[in-house]
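# step 3/5: fold
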Amino acid sequence: MYQTLSNASLKTGETAEIGVLLAPDADDSHGVGALLGHKGDYWRWHVDEALARELDGIETRYYVALIGGRAVSNVMTVEHAGVGLLGHVFTLPEQRRKGLCQAIFEQLMPDLRARGVERLTLGTGYDSAPYWIYHRAGFRSVLPESGFMKIDLRDDFAPRWFAPGAVTPAAFTWRHWPTASQLFAEDIGQGLTLYGAGAFGAFNFEGLGLQLLKAIADGRPLQVWVLEKDNSAVVGLASLRPDDRWGGRVHLLDLVGHADFGAELPRLLEHLTWPAAKVQCYLPTAAEARCAAVEACGFQREGVLRRQLAGGGDVALYARE
């Protein structure tokens, strides 16, 4: 469904129509798919899937500038339950320096607020030209001198989103892509968030989340489960896959959760199907709830990597067979 939002006067004297396309749009009537055709691999996979069909509760919107009825500039959001991701900010080279991106943001930000969106995250190059476009729109770096950015459209977002409440384990699917991204915008890892992803603190889950979805869709030997609150907040995640560094003979478990939900982590592990192979898990020794969860599931501590983390923290290596 397409909606016109405004007509913008450009620096060149041209006029562009600013609008928003709520996917799906199988006919791609404004050429969004063609505009984003340069996107690689799994990024293009999501664009194609979103245009073709409904995706398990997420809303993919393409905020576009049209000239001659065709999309020449785009900003995408992917949302569920009032939180989301912002990406695919792109203008055709021959249409740049006309003010198209700014014109889109002037319509996008009020539309987000009007629809009740409470937080968005994005990734870009720190101190780049796009970084300052996002900064002017209200986004701020999650970490010092980082291109991982977020905007909270309600000041009390995090305390409400992650407030204690009942949780349910769920297999990772499309709706968890934007919601899990909010968990990883918090510093929950105690020095080591997801060993398999090389994530040691808050990090942008956007790319990793989409890679996980593509791997699951392709039938690869990967299991991903999340802990989901009634308000759709993801407060824990577990993944289990063959570890290619050992030729697939050893599997790797990653387990992480919000501090207020540590006692619920064993429920994630109950939903995993354990392979007839050795499984390893790397956890900070300071992460007591995560360590207790794997120990309750039959893991034994094989060793400790001393002063392995920034700040001097130790990492415990757990395994089960």
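# step 4/5: annotate
The longest strand covers residues 70-80.
# step 5/5: archive (pending)
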